[in-house]
Design goal:
The protein is α/β, with parallel strands linked by helices. The chain has eleven helices and 15 strands.
Amino acid sequence: MNTKSLTTPSGIIRFPAYVPVTTFGGKYPLDALIQPYFPRLAQVVMVSHHYALQMKERPRLPLMIDSGGFAALFEGSRIIDERDLGVLEVNLGETPFLLTPWDVLDFQEQRADIAFTLDFPIPPGLDSDEATKRQRLTITNAHWALRNRRRKEMCLFACIQGWDIKSIAACAQAYTDQGFDGIALGGMVPRARDRDYVLACVHAVRKEIPDLPLHVFGLGHPDFLPALYAAGVDSVDSSSYVKAAADGVQWRAGTKLPDASTPERLRFALENLSLASAVTLPMQSQLSTNWHS
């Protein structure tokens, strides 16, 4: 059964909740056009650590900030074991930068209502020694964050990573009765085509931790949401609503307009988000009329 709600410093989130992912910094201009509508169409918004660093004004609703650990999947990135804590070295330019659990937590405590611990994704087929290392450091980073957080009103979610159902259950077990405010299951995006497997992972986590809010990263297509919620997922985050719109795709109608204008892409994004969130789009008919006039 889904947890009913979660109280954050910026308001109450009622579950189940679809969490739109957005960015700051201008790399994806459509995001800036969508952001003013979030308070009408969503209960909470997700920003990755990298883009949150570029945020000048926070959204007017509860804010999730993840750790940015997905950068471990970037070519040239390296996970360093530093005194049993996991540090990520990211090489995107001439000078590598470090993503540390203490820097991530410090920033999250300044901005986030809900924070996610620094985790390291385990893609399918990863070498077993590296997979074990990533899971171990994901767990130790989570426990370190729980011990060292200062802003107690910020909700802290421990991240789960694993390479199969058994290892995912073991990771969840490491967080049982530790004092986390929630848990978050990662690593499902590259496995999303096998929905039965994803649901089995959710059930394995719920067996170990039945009572905390459960978030799943990156799974947000509306036709999968009912099954996820029924399995015990409380919230999911996704940028699929805007990525589809950028490609001219409108989920509800099942249509694609490859040469869509910017106003049309904005309308598609809002309609996709309203469908996923099960919220009526305000002034939908008027907006549609104006943009097509």
